Amino acid sequence: MAVPFLDLKLQYHALRAELDQAIARVVGSQRFILGPEVQSLEEEMAQYLGVPFAVGVASGTDALLLPLKALEPEPGDEVIVPAFTFFATAGAAWNSGFTPVFCDVDESTFNVTAGSIAAAWTDRTRAVIPVHLFGQMAPMAEIRALARSKGAFVLEDAAQAIGARQGFPAATLTEDPAGMPSLSLTEGVAAGGWAMAGTLGDAGAFSFFPTKNLGGFGDGGLVVTADEALAEIVAKLRVHGGRQMYSHEMVGTNSRLDALQAAVLRVKLPHLERWAEARRRHALLYDEIFSDLPGVSIPSVASNNVHVYNQYTLRVDRRDELREYLGQGGIGSGLYYPKGLHLQECFAPLGGKEGDLPVTEQLTGEVVSLPIFPELNESQITEVGRAIREFYTA
Ligand SMILES: *Cc1c(COP(=O)(O)O)cnc(C)c1O
């Protein structure tokens, strides 16, 4: 039985009538740029996440770029980013005018920790971008505490983690006098001390790229924050730096969320929690199948995290051989990520070299991601598991 790595058509067909109607509504209105669809999505997202301000932008990349530009970096100002992430995290940092400084990650969660960030800190550090990789949140209480103690800005890269939650001991939140987004802003989900990914930094960035857990029919992104002034600046930067036409207080760019995308996303948002549940169910099945298989380590989830599994990623022996074997049997797999960003050619001027970030370098040789999209059925998961067990026990 062939199992695709991802099949977006299934989700489209399940919601086709509603989606087609939403698109027809925008086309009928001929209001394609910002307008009521984008504003409604912003309101619905802010409510879902429990955050006061949400600004739709053209992509997840721009959702990282614009808040960083709002900080008006001086040459040489540094932002700490993980080396084990999608390129955009570091690319946006670079393009904003910051110097990206790469840090390592934890080998069992794939995420940055306060310790790995602290190891990369210098007296030029002004910001840090914890990435919630594969749909699990990095430890925000510790990261916030570190950044607060040094006066640095925290931008959460939640592109893969929409709907992920993290539990907090109540004291962690109430002890935070500096006005960070906290329990009061996430009441919807936080009655028991849970907060949504993206709402615990000074700002959070989301992506609506089609393969993300909430995917549009093209590019799209969202910036969220509890800081009204910051939201205002990002809203200006997305329209050439002025809220009124032909009056520009700053040099922005064209980075609006498309109204057609907003309409599509508004249809999908009410299904997001159900889809995340399905992803977690699949992950649990995989965990059971692989828990005792030599040569394979299942992803570990911190006990205070609710994972949304944008990816289900194993660490395995003979990774490339395994992928080849699966491919021959018609089973899709993904490789996120094959190379640490500190070793990318474009960042050579930053001086990164082999051996600098050992965990990242080890992971890039061991990780493989399996099909995890919500519409998969149990027999497909079992089939992927069977093929992998066969590879390691044959
Ligand atoms: C997808 C992604 C982005 C960028 O989002 P785009 O919408 O593709 O620009 C940024 N960071 C991470 C971790 C991502 O996975």
Question: Can you summarize this structure?
Answer:
The protein has 394 residues and is an alpha/beta fold. It is built from 15 helices and 13 strands.
Topology (SSEs and partners):
Blueprint: H1 8-14, H2 16-29, H3 35-49, E1 53-57, H4 60-70, E2 78-82, H5 87-95, E3 99-103, H6 114-118, E4 125-128, H7 140-150, E5 153-157, E6 165-167, H8 170-174, H9 187-190, E7 194-196, E8 203-207, E9 221-225, H10 228-237, H11 259-268, H12 272-290, E10 296-297, E11 305-306, E12 312-316, H13 319-328, H14 358-363, E13 367-370, H15 378-393
Parallel strand pairs: 2-3, 2-4, 4-5, 5-8
Antiparallel strand pairs: 1-9, 6-7, 6-11, 8-9, 10-12, 12-13
The structure holds pyridoxal-5'-phosphate (PLP).
Description:
The protein has 15 helices and 13 strands. With 394 residues, the chain is of the alpha/beta class. The chain has two domains: 262 residues, Type I PLP-dependent aspartate aminotransferase-like (Major domain) (Aspartate Aminotransferase, domain 2); 123 residues, Aspartate Aminotransferase, domain 1. The strands form three sheets. It has a seven-stranded mixed β-sheet with strand order 1-9-8-5-4-2-3, with helices on both faces. Strands 7-6-11 form a three-stranded antiparallel β-sheet. A three-stranded antiparallel β-sheet has the order 10-12-13, with no helix packed on it. Helix 5 links the parallel strand 2 and strand 3. Helix 2 runs antiparallel to helix 11 and helix 4 runs parallel beside helix 5. The radius of gyration is 21 Å and the shape is globular. About 5% of the residues have low confidence. It binds pyridoxal-5'-phosphate. The site of pyridoxal-5'-phosphate has 15 residues, from helix 4 and helix 5.
